[in-house]
Write a structure and sequence with these properties.
The protein is α+β, with helices and mostly antiparallel strands and about 725 residues long. Among the domains are: about 1-195, no CATH class; about 200-330, no CATH class. The protein has a 32-stranded mixed β-sheet that branches. A hairpin with a 3-residue loop joins strand 2 and strand 3.
């Protein structure tokens, strides 16, 4: 972590500066008489201006103390006239006698009104780089290269003997101006209190800070408030720095957040730098609103280009809607108002900041539990999410918006206002911003009222092009093989669905899907290939295109009883009344057909349905845009109508009866002109009888003509015989 090293180096430079000034004052004793000389020496050593405006206080015994007031230290060249550092008061005192034993016993370190102005220019140059270079050069001159290891060890041993009665840093302000990225930050106030400090021993630590950040990618300024306390242990010999029983509160406000967010942190944290730099959080508890995340986390190889993460965490059971509301966002509306009230997460994580894997993980949402593995790879153009999950059951209907349920069932009674439209809102930017490669398996899935079992699916997404292929399941006594595509790359989303259902109970499926009695019943096969686009339900209907075919056996078509329609028309023709106590459905032993969809209009020209009673052929159209239909059913009676509430109609046997279906899906009307149908039959029968009579007459004439010819021939033969006998 380069910024930690730079900050430590900067602090070391400032401490070195104070020590240099203190040592010089000790030598000259009357420091106030040498202000100008001190300022000149610093100017020569650093190239920066030092101004000592306030008095200099110096004590020699029993403690060596230095007090400076109104100190100003100039900025680097090219960074303006604003000072690099200003200090209202700094007071340091060191016990003299321990120094004779080569021990450092600091009686006090107090600073008030410290102001630092840190900056980076457009070329990436920092306004403290020159100080670090000078400090490094001074160290190289003082310590030979061959003595580096020995000096470092001796230095750490010496630092272990440091004893500081307390450190107080108050009313501190640090400003950061990054002209390279355009970000500006201000840390004010910053207050630090440390109790008696000895390396390797715990001491009380209290810190209070407020950070304000603006610019860069932030649309508006953000404020971060931190209040921290704990037991600090600085082990310089082993290069281990820890805070036990750390208790911190963090507040975030602005920066695009809907409202201020508060977080809490409780942990034992340790930073180890002896070998590879590592940061460990033991007994970690992180709280946000009503969520508590507990476990441990470790960040290793922090001094490398690829830091690593290892963690095991779990949450409490929390209400997701309440969490979203606490964060200032609008909670999602769901079909089930109690949905998302019990959510929990348990996972193990490994990897780096750009390539993280959770294996295993378990997420609980209400009654559903999903487990498996998941990963995040941020090294590409877009983050890639991988997963392999499985679970026993999941009811998606609980989590869909109420508008989707209304669209599916038309408010459950088919009375939705014709002028009312429903928006299908998708997070298009989010769908485009990630790639996905995953698989899932579920024992049961409830979606759009339908129930699927033993589901297996693959999901792939790239730049907003989402594909679920294949999606295999068992459904309604049959098997489903399908693929689904959502293309979110355009301003208007596009949808595609291809499905092949074999041995399907179509009645049970339709009843579950539409929440009402199904129009079609039977067991068979259904193939479907459709596509549409739009953001409103009306747009999805008007842009619907595709085709399909079906084949069902031993079922019924509800909403029309063809036999009853025929009997009703026949009764009207005879001037009779008819009791209607039959089910309003037409049974069939076989039903087949295909259809095409163009701009929301469904067309069928080859419907065929057979039963022992009827032969049905149908053609027509249904317009999904206004829920209207215009369909013609040509019905031929091949059996008896008796046994279905009416007498035999032998007169109609073999007659093709056209039934016209019009109106809306919710209120269809049926019309059969039986009189015209019978007139056509009788006219046809009359024409047939005339033709038969003509044929019989023609045959009789031919017979008479033949008999006449025979008689003529016989008479001619007798005449010829008489003539020959003469």
């Amino acid at each position: 972590m380069k910024w930690i090293k730079r900050l430590l180096g900067l602090i070391a430079v400032l401490i070195l500066l104070v020590i240099i000034v203190a040592a010089y004052l000790l030598i000259t004793f009357d420091a106030n008489d040498y202000k100008e000389r001190i300022e000149a020496e610093v100017q020569e050593a650093t190239g920066r201006e030092l101004t000592l405006s306030g008095p200099i206080g110096l004590t020699l015994f029993p403690s060596l103390g230095l007090r400076l007031e109104e100190v100003r230290f100039g900025n680097a060249e090219g960074f303006g006239d604003e000072p690099f550092a200003e200090i209202d008061v700094v007071d340091v005192a060191v016990a003299v006698m321990p120094l004779l034993r080569r021990e450092l016993e600091v009686q006090r370190v107090e600073a008030d009104g410290v102001r630092l102005n840190l900056a980076r220019d457009e070329e990436g140059r920092n306004n403290w780089d020159d100080l670090l270079d000078q400090a490094g050069a001074a160290r190289d001159d003082a310590v030979g290269a061959d003595d580096d290891e020995r000096t470092e060890t001796e230095t750490r041993l010496a630092l272990q003997r440091i004893d500081v009665a307390g450190i107080s840093l108050s009313n501190t302000r640090v400003r950061w101006d990054d002209r390279e990225s355009g970000m500006q930050a201000t840390l004010e106030p910053f207050n630090l209190q440390v109790g008696r400090f000895r390396p390797g021993m715990e001491t009380r630590l209290d810190l209070e800070a407020l950070l304000r950040v603006e610019g860069d990618d932030l649309d508006e300024p953000m404020e971060v408030a931190l209040d921290l306390g704990g037991l600090l242990n600085v082990d310089l010999l082993n290069e281990r720095y820890s805070v036990r029983r750390l208790n911190a509160t963090l507040g975030l406000d602005g920066g695009g957040l809907p409202r201020a967010v508060g977080m809490t942190l409780e942990t034992d944290v340790a930073l180890e730098m002896a070998d590879a730099m590592a940061l460990r959080f033991e007994r970690l508890t992180l709280g946000v609103a009503n969520v508590r995340l507990t476990g441990f986390a470790e960040l290793s190889d922090l001094d490398s280009e690829a830091p690593q993460i290892r963690s095991e965490m779990r949450t409490n059971t929390f209400n997701l809607k309440e969490l979203v509301a606490e964060l200032g966002m609008e909670p999602p509306e769901t079909n089930n108002p109690d949905a998302l009230s019990r959510v929990a997460l348990d996972f193990s994580a490994n990897g780096g900041f750009q390539n993280l894997t959770m294996d295993p993980f378990l997420i609980t949402v209400d009654e559903a539990m999903l487990g498996g593995s998941a990963g995040w790879d941020g090294r590409g153009e877009r983050p890639l999410i991988r997963f392999d999950v499985s679970g026993e059951s999941l009811n998606l209907d609980h989590y869909l918006p109420p508008e989707v349920e209304e669209a599916r069932t038309d408010n459950g009674n088919g009375e939705r206002d014709a002028d009312e439209d429903i928006a299908i809102e998708l997070p298009l930017e989010a769908l485009r911003s990630i790639d996905v490669d995953g698989s899932a398996a579920l024992g049961r899935l409830d979606v759009m009222g339908m129930v699927l079992r033993n589901i297996e699916l693959q999901i792939k997404a790239e730049a907003g092009d989402w594909n679920i292929e294949p999606l295999n399941a068992e459904a309604y006594e049959g098997e489903l093989t399908s693929r689904i595509r959502l293309d979110a790359r355009h301003d208007v989303p596009r949808y595609e669905l291809a499905a092949d259902l074999q041995s399907l109970d179509i009645g049970a499926l339709l009843e579950d899907f539409q929440g009402d009695d199904a129009r079609l019943m039977g067991i068979g096969n259904l193939e479907l290939d459709i596509a549409t686009r739009g953001e409103l339900l009306s747009d999805l209907k008007s842009a619907l295109n595709g085709s399909g075919n079906m084949s069902f056996e031993d079922g019924a078509v509800r909403g029309i009883n063809v036999a009853q329609v025929i009997r009703r028309a026949e009764a009207r023709l005879r001037g009779e009344s008819l009791e209607e106590d039959e089910p309003n459905q037409t049974d069939f032993s076989e039903l087949t057909g295909s259809f095409t969809i163009r701009d929301g209009v469904v067309r069928n020209d080859d419907l065929r349905a057979n039963s022992p009673l009827l032969r049905v052929r149908g053609e027509g159209r249904a317009d999904l845009n206004d829920d209207s239909m215009d369909y013609r059913v040509n019905t031929t009676v091949v059996g008896t109508l008796e046994g279905q509430g009416g007498r035999e109609l032998d007169d109609l046997r073999g007659v093709t009866l056209p039934i016209r279906i019009t109106g809306t899906f919710a209120d269809p009307s049926f019309r059969l002109d039986l009189e015209d149908a019978l007139r056509e039959r009788y006219e046809g029968e009359a024409r047939e009888r005339v033709r038969e009579e003509q044929e019989r007459a023609r045959e009789r004439l031919d017979e008479e003509e033949q008999r006449a010819r025979d008689r003529i021939e016989q008479e001619s033969d007798r005449i010829l015989d008489r003539l020959r006998s003469r």
